[in-house]
Fold this protein.
Amino acid sequence: MELHTTPVIPVLRRRLTLRLPQVAQMAGPCCAELEALARAQGRTVQGPPIFAAHGLPQDGHTPFDLDICLPVSGPGTEELPALVCMRTVYCGPLEGLFTQGYQALLDAIAAAGRTPSGQTREVYHDWHSPESPDNRIELQIGLAP
């Protein structure tokens, strides 16, 4: 776990309002759509997909906003703002993402006497499948000032 400030990142973005169980069915098609848009616009992909959640719920029933972002080059892109956060890298299948990834990060934030801002990001550095032990996902939880 480390305190980190992400820079502003130029992105192509798709905003969705959904529930946690819907993320899996929407993620692949949205990422493919953004990659096709980048190619069509002649942009260079500058990094892995970033999922930026606003008010990530702790249950599967509450809707929340999710920005699926693809870092790209070129003028006229949207910007994912800088984020002061605590971050860690989770490796493994998605079933452990919350219990082993997010919970450990939330515990570190509480131990540091900080408060989450309601902004979270997942950076998909290495993705194989929901069940793969080889997935590598950077988790970022924004911190309140």
